Amino acid sequence: MTSTGSEPLVSVVMPAYNVAWCIRRAVDSVLAQDYGARELIVVNDGSTDDTRAVLETYGGAISVIDQENRGMSAARNVAIRKARGTYIAFLDADDRWLPAKLSRQVKLMQDRPEIGFCSTAARVEDGEGNLLNLWGCRHGGTEMLATLFAEGAAIAGGCSAVMARKHLVDRVGLFDETLRGFEDPDLWIRLAAESGYQCIDETLVVILRRERSVSRNLDAMRSSTLRSMRKNRELLPPRLRGGFWRNCVAGVYTDYAKPAYRAGRIGRAYADTLRALSLSPIGRGRLCLGLLRDFLLGRPV
Fold this sequence. Notes:
Layout: E1 10-16, H1 23-31, E2 38-45, H2 51-56, E3 63-67, H3 72-82, E4 87-90, E5 96-97, H4 101-111, E6 115-125, E7 131-135, H5 145-150, E8 163-165, H6 166-172, H7 183-192, E9 196-208, H8 214-231, H9 243-262, H10 266-279, H11 285-297
Parallel strand pairs: 1-2, 1-4, 2-3, 6-9
Antiparallel strand pairs: 4-8, 5-9, 6-7, 6-8
Helix pairs in contact: 8-9, 9-10, 10-11
């Protein structure tokens, strides 16, 4: 709901699935923002724990939408369609914001009409609150599309740091609900094809990193990343749809060959490295040959 006025300028979108253990911290960080013209829409995506009970304690301070479990992208899309704000800001339920996050981004978006979406630097922590790394700004400006093909994590802070103009999100399409991984960069690619991007080099978001099973997520992430690269290829300028695009796809194969090897999936590791070599023998040749040597010798990668 809004803190001031009848119409929010910013709609905050938060998917929630079995996050009773952490969602209060995320919601409180939104309500503690020093920017008041905002609403928070939480989509309870079929939680079976006490998530709904926690959300009920906030009363009319937030909006809650209940649905059967359909996944994070579907939950975000439901909230986007309900959003009334000029800007959409995303926050995952296990992350949190610092108080000036929204005000800094709104000022940037109002001052720079050519910027369609922005993010901020972030602090990445483990479950005990220990610093893992600082996810700082490295990219920006109006030429972001090619960078996103080459580097999926180019948007500092990830989804919980992004604010976008709602009309732009509506125009390029919402999160792709058929992807089971890489949904966020897939949307950033489509936004970057239409507008500029800027990063605020100030740590305004805290990201939680938890251990996940590589073997469980590897195939879905790999498949979704490759699908996104292929379906968005035509968004690139014609001069980048050949060798540059093949080099980027080869990079995806080598990126996933390494965790496959570490998980003991030797056949997949070899196959993906050979695919990368055939796609980009010049750009990725040295890397691929080095990986194949290490695989053969049983070295750590």
